[in-house]
Amino acid sequence: MSTDSVNNGKRRFLVASTSVVGAVGVGFVAVPFLASWMPSERAKNAGAPIEADVSRLEEGRMMTVEWQSKPVWIVRRSEKTLANLEESTDQLRDPASENVDQQPEYAQNMYRSIKPEFLVLVGICTHLGCSPTFRPDIAPADLGEDWLGGFFCPCHSSKFDMAGRVYSGVPAPTNLVVPPHYYVTDTTIIVGKEGGNA
To answer: Which fold has domain 49-191?
Structure first.
């Protein structure tokens, strides 16, 4: 057996071994690198529908959940609040919610909701994207005697009633947006998707 044949065999073995180890190393580097191009779980979930349990939400109170990185308000309205909605219609820009881009068809009513008791709104002003404040108080000094509760945007003084309908003569051009939603049970709402309603 010659020295050249032994060295060629060792050389082929070393080249093959080095190639295998190199390929494995490239795999260990490539997999995390390629995985970094994929959207994160948080990013995937940001647009996903979310579930809101309103069983403990007290009358006259509001809770906030996040959907698509936006605040979504859920307000439990009282009978008195619902009755007040009719009193302010002459002061509103779109009291009948005729702008169909502002709510799904099933919320195109005076209450702008599936169930009158619960209001579901995206908490972003339709003027320049500020977040209005929840002002359920009646006739506060800073909003006037005719204020029956609603949402006030501190950025440019836009006002919305307790159905998210915009007042006339304010900078906001349209009502607050009602997101797609449905009820899984009487007190569980899925926000971000349309479906059968309980």
So the answer is: Rieske Iron-sulfur Protein (2.102.10)
